[in-house]
Amino acid sequence: MGTTLERARWPAFVVRDHExxxxxxxxxxxxxxxxxxxxxxxxxxxxxxxxxxxLHIAHLLWGGLLMLIGLVVLLSAxxxxxxxxAAIVGGLGFGLFVDExxxxxxxxxxxxxQPAVALIYVVFILLFLLFRSIERRSLSPQESLVNAADILxxxxxxxxxxxxxxxxxxxxxxxxxxxxxxxxLEQAMAxxxxxxxxxSLLSGVAVSAWRAYDHLLRWQxxxxxxxxxxxxxxxxxxxxxxxxxxxxxxxxxxxxxxLASSTLTLALTVVGVVRLPQSRLAAYRWFERGxxxxxxxxxxxxxxxxxxxxxxxxxxxxxxxxxxxxxIRQEGARVVTER
Length: 339
Description:
- This protein has helices at 4-8, 20-44, 59-76, 80-99, 101-104, 114-136, 141-158, 162-175, 180-194, 201-218, 222-247, 255-275, 280-303, 307-338.
- By secondary structure, it is an all-alpha fold.
- It folds into three domains: 17-136, no CATH class; 140-198; 218-329.
- The radius of gyration is 23 Å and the shape is globular.
- The relative contact order is 0.10.
- The model is unreliable at 1-10 (pLDDT under 50).
């Protein structure tokens, strides 16, 4: 019987990574962070000029350097961890690059060109929608088989963790393949299970994370703590943006957009609270959607009213996103290992 790869005959470059959504999200969040932090730093330091005489080293060049570093890591290193590093570094570089957009759409190279801010905002929204469309598409049987094989790289590099093996087993089942490739992967997975004790430091951290999540689930207040944190974050964001919008005369025209995005964050969070008793994984994803709306919409709008408040809100949102990514990864691994 032929393998899925033999039947599908798709070129290798169209096979998507099952971690694509997470990596693309890391890239976009890093880019947003770079733009906001750069503009805050420049305003606080009086827009310093790097260089002398007729020379000026624009931060666009540093952005290009970071994007190059991200590409070098991506093209020269193996494993999903290298992809995550490349996504973060490349995202920071793209943020520095796109922040200088005003200089390249105006005849006088005007960094402060006001419509450039809207253009940057549109770029991030379009990228967000594009990345979401990539993530929403389910993996084909061929892609599932290839991704199962790809996990072996991380297993070899970092040792076999329960989460990685569970995800690999789920992808193999999803591929529906029973040929020699699938059989070889099953044998490799069985061998990895036998050498679990010979794991690296990174693998040990992953196992500790799994155990920590087990302890959290046994805590009777865990669910209540979750919805208190995320509902509190959404409500506080709505109150803060309302106060800022009313207090800032120059930002009054942005008040409807700010209120709309803050209200959407609260609505998505409430959906997560409702889903929590039925499916923790679904609830985590709704919480994540709410925080992402805050990062990509609310904090960007608030930035033009109060930079320090926006940066503080962004920092808190990034902490919550990191927590949610941990919860989603652990719960997702638990779900696939129990199937």
